[in-house]
Amino acid sequence: MAAWLDIAALLGSDAAMSGQNPVDEPIPTADIAAKIVRERLGWPMPDIRRFTTGIAFFVYDVRQGAENVVVRIGRPSQATALAESLALWGRLAPLGVPLPRILVDGTAEKLPFVIMTRLDGTDLGHVMAGLPANRLTAIAHAVADAQMATARLGLGKGFGYAARPEVAPHRNWGDVVAAHIERSLRRIADNGLFPITIAEGVLARLAMHRLALDAMLPVPFLHDTTTKNVIVTETGDFSGIVDVDDLCFGDPRYAAALTRAALLTFGAGPLDYVQPWLQRMGLLDDDVFAFYVAAFLLDFISEHGMVFNGNQAPSDPAMRERLANLLAQTLDGAS
Known about the structure:
This protein is of the alpha+beta class. The chain has helices at about 5-10, 30-40, 80-90, 125, 135-150, 175-190, 200-215, 255-265, 275-280, 285-305, 315-330; strands spanning about 45-50, 60-65, 65-75, 100-105, 115, 120-125, 160, 220, 230, 240, 245-250. The two termini are about 20 Å apart.
């Protein structure tokens, strides 16, 4: 087996896997969110609903009459990450990145939390299937504008995921993508729902494009502006972006590729949604972009059946077959 297909060697790595939470820490609950808003906002009987998409923090939609806020709560070990995300918001907002306004900073509490304004609308994926093409183009342009505003922070000192440019952990972009694929391999092996050989085509493309990846600059971008975290109204008005905990430093097409992979997988809307986004930023939809899409499909495969903060759906045989077919089709269409 060629070096780039040495799956056993990759699985021998000690790389950490996301989605795993300390078992001995207190878990945030709706009752805790209610207590926070009673004490900090004076709301006596808040109505609380947990958002079902969060995989890092526990996020609650809280109402009291006509008033509406969002409460994000972390475990004690997440206090630093939550505080650093607020500091990041303070740097992004003046550049024009449309983020919620912070009302209460509780990151120094035993269970760290933040109370913020509730943007009008819902995740893009909930409504995009019913929106006309011109509204989707306007939303894609708004996302692209937010990405270009983020890029004005300046190039990072390294590559990968970090709230501050000086702590980005990798020496080049190729290492970031390779680590992403390695994490998928470890999850696939641990979960046992797919054969590990399903990754061979993605690993082959990684080797093929490695020189191009290593030549990328560490451009800061919002890495999760997909069919979630982009908040729009039912009529397609763009409200802003949520859940910005850190940035990624590297090729900003990675976020658009994740969005394309999500659209392929979950069918929330038209696949060409990302084209106006790429065009507005002057970015290419080429073989490297197609490889990114395949890498994210492998990531979805690796996550299938996993539970993140109790929010992940159980495994389904039909969905497993669909994911495998989508990956094969994407690889067949890319060189």
